[in-house]
Amino acid sequence: MFEELLWFILAVILVTLIVNRFTATKNLPPGPFPLPIIGNAHKISHDSRHLDLTALEKQYGKVFRLYLGSQLVIVVSGGNAVKEVLVTKSAEFAGRLSLYTLEIYLQNGDGIAFADYSPKWRLHRKIVVSALKMYSNGKLKQESIINDEFDLLLKRVASRNGQPHDMTKEIRLAVTNVICTLVFGSRYELDDPEFTKVIEITEGIVKMVASGSVVDALPWLRFFPFKSVQNLKEKCNERDELVENPQDLTDALLKTKKEAEDEDSSIKGFLTDQQLIMTMSEVFLGGSETTAGALCWALLHLIYNPGVQQKLHQELDQVIGPDRLPELRDNEKLPYVKATITETLRISSIGPVAFHKTTVDTTLQGYDIPKGATVLVNLWSLHHDPAIWDEPDDFRPERFLDEDGKFVPPRADRFLPFSAGRRSCLGEHLARIELFLAFSRLLHNFKFENPPGCDLPTLKPITETGTSIIMFEELLWFILAVILVTLIVNRFATTKNLPPGPFPLPIIGNAHKISYDSRHLDLTALEKQYGKVFRLYLGSQLMICVSGGNALKEVLVTKSAEFAGRPSLYTLDVYSQNGDAVAFADYSPKWRLHRKIVVSALKIYSTSRLKQGSIINDEFDLLLKRVASRNGQPHDITKEIRLAVTNVICALVFGSRYELEDPEFTKVIEITEGILKMIASGSVVDALPWLRFFPFKSVQNLKKKCNERDELVGRIYREHVEANRVENPQDLTDALLKAKKEAEDEDSSIKGFLTDQQLIMTMSEVFIGGNETTASALCWALLYLIYNPEVQQKLHQELDQVIGPDRLPELRDNEKLPYVKATITETLRLSSLGPSALHKTTVDTTLQGYDIPKGTTVLVNLWSLHHDPAIWDEPDDFRPERFLDEDGKFVPPRADRFLPFSAGRRSCLGEHLARIELFLAFSRLLYNFKFENPPGCDLPTLKPITGLVLMPQPFSVCAFKRHAR
């Protein structure tokens, strides 16, 4: 009751804060109604915010308002309004937001791009403009620097001899070196350790500033040691050390500063060395990221539009000829090149939005805009407005040419790739020179094509800009903090004899110790510090982390019932229809009955091993044909494997497979991928359950996908009920219906206890769970073989000796292929697909002598178990031989050291089917093909995509046929 009272006070304060902010100004632009606490944040999704803002614009007009939390944001996209913000009233809209991560990046406001508007900023900008003007007089030197670097790029690309390679990486290296030369006065060799450091610093800062931080939302949290903030500080310090002694553009900055001080002695010392260093940093970081991005977009659009590339080649051949390379003086003679670059800048809209802030109370298009309001200029909308651009989503350079083929510059109020006014990009002139020279030379020398047999690259951009803009009054935040600390202390003090662990901070607990994409590694690192059993707090939620053998056995086997619960997470409740599934449902008598029936159904179905083998073999034989048809050309094998595995699961669970081009199969794939992606990414609603009453877009999308899943699976289930094949089950759904009938015949009191909805959810779980884990395991296996060709060679030798040239491996060959079994086992160990398993205590209990209260989340760290150097020699090495004896016979790993499917009451019920499918699919793929990395390409990354399982990132292979059959 005490906690409920405090939560109520918390809510009242938050609502007061928001109502106070929302009612401050009456004559605001129109916009959607803001919800308490979150405002309109649910209207904007992270990876498509420019599209979401454009959609809202259609509803509310070219000027509308949003609230992100309690922060007023005015969104502007129409030509007249954009002109008023950027030009007519430039000074009134020239401010910049104050975000803690940007303060670190700027050394508390010492830069230009993100510093707030002030007399000091105006002087700083004036000196930078003068320096750039002075430096731009040396066009020939600039051109020479750019040409020299891109000539080296041309040689590197030519050395690939037309083989597939990552062009984006090559371009970023060249552009970074150009910027180093222009700003610092010297270039680096690509293998220079300092250049590697430059790249690392650039990518690190851009990623960390772009992704934002919870500290931007709650500024007073800056006093806590957030990992992301500490990393940003380190990178910025490394950056400042790097740029302390450069030349060239820096010389121009120093000269213009001296001239300004000579002209007006009162400003002497007003502009510090630190500010000039920050200016160099901004030119360096901004210039490398935007120019490289524009060049990569240009080549990507040419791959999609070979007709445009052909016209570029024709113009370059006619104007330049074969005996020289394009130069800056050729700019006006190459209108189609200029039009293509302009169209790239328009359609890609690299900087889709520009953030400003009002410096005074002002007006915009007749609306009152208060001082300090965030103003977001939606440049993407301007560049894709069908009222301005005919068919705006088409890549068509001709829109910038007249009837005679001459270049027609776009109108300044319709085309703003570098923004405009006081906050426009100061490096525009340099960027345009570099873009023209780099692009024209690449196209003069090469024809770019998509690698044969590979899908076209996606046109979906990587969107990373953060939107953490929530500023509340300090006094009320202080009250909130006191209440939350009280809540947390109250929670922390309930049990005394807990395992050791790091000290929890107010509000966030130990959340700052765990990063999303490496949480299994972070937990393993904490284990080394605190032991095999330790505690964490995520917010105020107690979590016990377990990884040691004895403790694991106690959780999963000895006290299985006491640790058999599941934590309640809202997204999982949506997924499982409030507990109607088995995997994510909480422990209860109903769950025990449900699980018993599922185990019986799997036992019934597993008696037809030959039929299962036939289904798997038939589907993977089709996969073998599709792979063979590639004739050794590079292709994305992960996509092919996922399609085959999905169809196998369809056949095993639903009783029939799909043709790959069947629209319903496309729907099945879309539903599966959508649900997995949304559950894996989690939701703020899981951390703050009371937010479930607000319409978060991610939760709405998950509900939509789950409803589509239930509609599809429900229809198939009803067809099975009508067919009534319980006496002769044909698939797992028939087996479920038979097991349910047998259980009800045996005990009439449970009749109706297990509903149709629960059986539908069971089908869904087997379908989605079996799909993702099996497909990922196969993909990991092939990826490890690319890294370890000697293992693949041994597999081929064993398969040739045992199977021979005239048939394919079958399930009966399992025991005759010890090296195949060892390789699959090593794949499951090293990849640790399910790196952790979440449990919950069902009663007050003990673990290794510690007291664990009822309702505690218990995380079993299987990744740590599978990578423990005390158990596994050189655990990070892929070595199937660890599961073979001296005679080459397979030695099964000890059950307490190897748990890829977990153990006990919460173990994976589909383990048996998964092992059959893994063996047949893997052995047949290796029997038929030799897999190699595409020539000239870097090895694929071993860094996983972190979700419900650790999935390998998509990768391409060349598959060479080994047998004539």
TrEMBL record:
Heme binds at residue 908. Pfam families: p450. Its cofactor is heme. It is found in: Membrane. GO terms for molecular function: heme binding; iron ion binding; steroid 17-alpha-monooxygenase activity. Keywords: Heme, Iron, Membrane, Metal-binding, Monooxygenase, Oxidoreductase. GO terms for biological process: hormone biosynthetic process; progesterone metabolic process. SUPFAM superfamilies: Cytochrome P450. InterPro entries: Cyt_P450, Cyt_P450_CS, Cyt_P450_E_grp-I, Cyt_P450_sf. One of its GO terms (cellular component) is membrane. Belongs to the cytochrome P450 family. This is Steroid 17-alpha-hydroxylase/17,20 lyase.
